[in-house]
Amino acid sequence: MSTDFLEDVRDPVVDRLAEYLNIPVILSDQEAPRPAYPFVHYSVIAPYIPNGEYGAYSIEDGEDEESLISTRSEQPHATFSFTVCSENRHEGKRYISGEDEAMRYAERAQGFFLHAGRAALSSIGIVVVEVMNSASRSLLDVDEVSRRWGFDLRVRYTKIDEREDPRMDSYNIRKG
Asked: What are the structural domains, with CATH classification, of the chain?
């Protein structure tokens, strides 16, 4: 049982945030159609930041008599960056300020990781270590300013690596 960062860490973080906010949360810098505003784009800044320790090791019997399963586990950190995107627009007769909408969703996302998401992620082995400050990340997008607010998130998780090794007594060692 080895840890797959994408499946075991990234996907649960992103999926739970999208469910909480009820807007799309998509990977940054990809070839895909841009969803309607508002949406969140994210990137994984660092999937593996070691904590400076060697980790814990264990050895167990393998599936057959000739092998052992060697396991190493540790608790590294990972850093995500989330940016909420919006724009000034009219929806029917209602005017939406992109700045306000992006800031509101960024604050809700931060709140998720500080409270409800902290508990939900902890229950599956992902610990929220730090929710960093939210800041404007707006930029000029052709002829309109794309309103953006974002923050970074640092989590800790358990990384497990396994390998199968032959038993030492299965080697044919000759004395010379």
From this structure: 5-32+40-167 (3.30.70)
